[in-house]
Fold:
Amino acid sequence: MATVATAGKTRNLTAPVIIEKVQAGIEESLTYYSKHPEEIGSRLLELDREWDIERAIEAEAAGSVLIGFVLGATVSKKWFLLPAFAGAMMLLHAIRGEYPLLPVFRRLGFRTANEIAQERYALKALRGDFDAVDSTRAEDHADKAFDAAAPSASNTSFAPTPV
Structure:
């Protein structure tokens, strides 16, 4: 059984009208900040604090488990079904990328990490953060990045050292 990456799956399971609303919001943001570039820094800070859909799902599931256990221990044993249901939903999400409350979260305005990143990098480009990047030397930059990431022949190793 293969697991599914949820990044694209979330978007595929979202109603087209909500995707259009999210894209329109990003375009509206870019239009505004193109006229007010001095405010881009504060918007980037807001985006850094924005909860993505995965974080909202994790928080909802954890809250359901906690509430279910507390109510199960204090009110009625039937409340222990809530953590079981939350666990089953999280398992479904981990295996298939689906989540029963996904449409609710999307309608509440939660965006995927990729949608947030799309706005973030568009704002950075608008601000000129990438102007210094020499695209004609991109291959040289990529080679240097790969060289830096590769373990060297010296003592540097990514393998754990015995204690």
Observations:
- The chain has one domain: 6-127.
